[in-house]
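For consistency, the fold was encoded as tokens, which produced the following:
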Amino acid sequence: MQVQNQALEKENQGLKAKNQVRDRDYLIGEAIVQIREVVDHLQDLAVQANVLSTKYESVSDRGRELALLLDRVKTLGLRAKAYL
């Protein structure tokens, strides 16, 4: 009886470990999907930032500041592309 209980306990531990691995793999997969969506969005923003920075770069101090910020968005978009 004790041997049988030990065997069942071992089997139960093995199932728990498999479930933990499956759950972890699922969460990692979900995180990857979300990261790809963020990267796609960031790349869209980078394209828009490129257009806007060209338009506003020499209009005024505010325009130059905006162009600088938009250039930073472009840079982030390029960096994020490496993670796809």
